[in-house]
Design a protein that fits this description.
A hairpin with a 2-residue loop joins strand 21 and strand 22. The chain is of the alpha+beta class. A six-stranded mixed beta barrel has the order 2-3-10-4-9-8. The chain is built from nine helices and 27 strands. It has two domains: about 230 residues, Acid Proteases (Cathepsin D, subunit A, domain 1, Beta Barrel), CATH 2.40.70; about 180 residues, Acid Proteases (Cathepsin D, subunit A, domain 1). The longest helix is centred in the N-terminal third of the chain and has 29 residues. It is globular, with a radius of gyration of 23 Å. About 20% of the residues lie in helices and about 35% in strands. One of its GO terms (molecular function) is aspartic-type endopeptidase activity. InterPro entries: Pepsin-like_plant, PEPTIDASE_A1, Peptidase_aspartic_dom_sf, Plant_Aspart_Prot_A1, TAXi_C, TAXi_N.
């Protein structure tokens, strides 16, 4: 009898021990949602309470120029290598995740143009910050250095004299980072006050990061690119190889959202969404997402952009992303940089459609702005439509224009070089956007991102 009772108790104990993992796996498969915080939000560690709206717009423009320059210059055949990782200062939206055991929470910048998730780690050279902003691997029982003979280390790292797998990356502005490739348990504190804990996520433990010295409160980036190191690829079938986000305007008081996995009950707007393919790059670039943009309309007037303007070319003579051209959708750049041939058609179409006086742009780049007297003058601003393979993406005036300063409204399009286009996050605000990595497909649906998805 005692043996029977002991057996029952042991079975119950083993079930209870396994139950959390079962529950978490089920919760993850249904999809879990995290809050996204715009860097200018009062909830952000990067918030500057003294900055004006004009200051924030100018800063976002400067970040856009820097990110555009970096993405333009990176190798198109990197396949997620270290050289492809993007400077964290270019991001606009932050997400909180917890790293290690016991789990410690950190603010990370979301980046759809990077694969590796990485955080600054102790010991940290050239770091002006202090814990808990910097992860201490010695305090975690689940931290594991990558073995020197692992495929990850062989592909993108190198071994040091202590047999640790190291990485080094250098950016176009000559800033750099160094660290250890490792694996760790990542905990996602989801919006319904539950948590999803995933073990053995490959990440970078950054011990030297010159580019990160002036970002108090931000610890690294969460990489959502399309390559095998992406956290989406690592979560894999657990989230059906899908993630989505819905970005609020920076002036909104509501959080934006980042979701892993498919929507359980998608709203009617999503069921009627545009579905467009994610284009495979001819040089096998996997770290960024390409879409098939065909043409553009201003109001009901199509620009008739020459065929091939937005398409990657088979041969990039310089070997960079910009040399191959094509159209990228990116969460970390604010404005949309339009291929020059297309911008030359867009600018006169906007001037014709907008019944306001054009004025010089506050920016140094080619960019169209107008003067206005009061808010009523902005009622007549036109829609801009991006004609994608599979359907049309309508940008209302709130996505196609931004008030730069009092009395000056500007388009959110900037002239880019040659045939290289990047669709920025202002165009993506109040649009539910789902990335399906397995089926190489993007879903877009106009949505009120202030409401729960």
């Amino acid at each position: 009898m005692a043996t029977t009772i002991f057996t029952i108790l042991l079975s119950v104990l083993l079930f209870l021990q396994s139950y959390p993992a079962i529950a978490l796996r089920s919760h993850a498969q249904k999809g879990f949602t995290l809050d996204l915080i715009h860097r200018d939000s009062p909830s952000s560690p990067l918030h500057n309470p003294t900055s004006t709206l004009s200051d924030r717009i100018r800063s976002s423009a400067e970040r856009s120029f820097s990110r555009f320059a970096h993405l333009s210059s990176r190798s198109a055949s990197s396949n997620g290598s270290i050289s492809a990782w993007v400077l964290p200062k270019f991001g606009d939206y932050l997400v909180k995740i917890a790293i290690g055991t016991p789990a410690v929470e950190y603010s990370m910048l979301m980046d759809t143009a990077s694969d590796l998730t990485w955080a600054r780690c102790l010991p940290c050279k050239r770091c002006s910050h202090r814990p808990p902003e910097i992860f201490n691997p010695d305090n975690s029982s689940t931290f594991k250095n990558q073995r020197c003979n692992s495929s990850l280390c062989t592909d993108i790292g190198h071994c040091d004299l202590q047999k640790r797998c190291q990485y080094t990356y250098v950016y176009a502005d000559r800033t750099y980072g160094k660290g250890t490739l490792a694996s760790e348990t990542i905990t996602f504190e989801v919006s319904d006050s539950q948590s999803v804990k995933i073990p053995n996520i490959n990440f970078g433990c950054g011990h030297e990061s010159e580019s990160f010295t002036d970002f108090d409160g931000v610890s690294g980036i969460i990489g959502l690119g399309g390559g095998p190191l992406s956290i989406v690829s690592q979560l894999g079938s657990l989230v059906d190889y899908k993630f989505s986000y819905c970005l609020n305007s920076p002036i909104s008081n509501s959080f934006s959202m980042l979701k892993f996995g498919a929507s359980v009950q998608p709203p009617a707007a999503i069921r009627k969404a545009v579905k467009t393919p994610l284009v495979k790059h001819p040089a096998n670039e996997t770290g960024v997402y390409y879409v098939a943009l065909k043409d553009i309309s201003v109001g009901n007037k199509k620009l008739n952009v020459p065929a091939g303007t937005f398409k990657p070319t088979p041969n990039g003579k310089g070997g960079t992303i910009a040399d191959y051209g094509g159209t990228i959708i990116d969460s970390g750049i604010t404005f949309t940089f339009l291929a020059l041939e297309a911008y030359n058609l867009l600018e006169p179409a906007l001037k014709s459609a907008v019944k306001l006086q054009s004025v010089p742009s506050p920016l140094t780049h080619r960019h169209l702005c107008f003067s206005y007297n009061d808010a009523n003058d902005l009622d007549g601003l036109p829609n801009v439509i991006l004609h994608l393979e599979g359907g049309d993406w309508l940008l209302p005036p709130s996505n196609a224009f931004v008030v730069f300063t009092e009395g000056v409204v500007c388009s959110t399009f900037i002239a880019g070089p040659r045939r290289f286009t990047i669709i920025g996050n202002t165009a993506q605000q109040n649009v539910y956007i789902e990335y399906d990595l397995r089926n190489r497909r993007l879903l877009l649906a106009p949505t009120d991102c202030g409401r729960s998805i």
